[in-house]
């Protein structure tokens, strides 16, 4: 039996997967008999999609869906504004840490995660990757040493000491410092006096490349941020988002969203995202020098205008997102999620396939009954 595998298309793919092609052909054959039309207010354009669930929902709940899209866009604007209010302070912390830790040639302190991808809000953590060397021979030796727990703890403690002894000392609440050296991804956790969380990873090329990938997706289409915001809150409402206790993480949910948005062309509509690692092969290839990837993240992502409506709007994409994953048939109890640079699954949720299947199918049934179309999300 085969486990269900979700793989975001990596740079070595030259065509879409067979699964996507088959679904696309099926969608084309259905267009004559099954399509949905949404009349967008103040616009004569129409949205047609080959999915009977979406067809029914749009026909029956058009006003609720328009309201949901408007509320999500409003929330996105508020989140972004709250981020802008903290931007100057965030920059001062990052620049200050960079002066302390990345003083020599070949050293970098790189923003990663939501702060660098453009998906952050005012309460988002500052996630950073410290590269102490980009010389391949030195790096190979360092990684071998960091695999040993005692050396790793000593290395991280020395980094913490350098910050403590610098001019930044008074910026942080040192009673809240934590050296998490035994985690799968070791982190030096800091907290500023203004209660902003700062997490520093060490020598993680993958985090830098993945952030470049997510940023390109978010900048390509603003609906990435909108659908991701809904999906994160939705999985929280299902009580399935808690990586510290073996459930799904924010990054897992984001990968589900990005995979889906690259598959939307199989439903007879213009793809929301192209196969990103194919279209942007030059910037996303795994052989791109890490220095170039790192420096590209030093500049903050451009601001997105969430006021503008797009077709299909986020509410229609939510319906299609739910239907897409509710229809997947899992033959084992595990779900494998691969980001573009992963050689092994990044998801180790026990029974993850069953959990996801039940959540998507339950949500689909609730939507058919007119529920789960509000914001904030409620299944009632």
UniProtKB/TrEMBL annotation:
Taxonomic superkingdom: Eukaryota
Residue ranges annotated for the Poly(A) RNA polymerase mitochondrial-like central palm domain, each copy included: 86-215
Protein name per Swiss-Prot or TrEMBL: PAP-associated domain-containing protein
Originating species: Brugia pahangi (Filarial nematode worm)
Signal peptide interval: none
GO molecular function, one term: RNA uridylyltransferase activity
InterPro entries: MTPAP-like_central, NT_sf
Pfam families tied to this protein: MTPAP-like_central
BP term (GO), one: RNA 3'-end processing
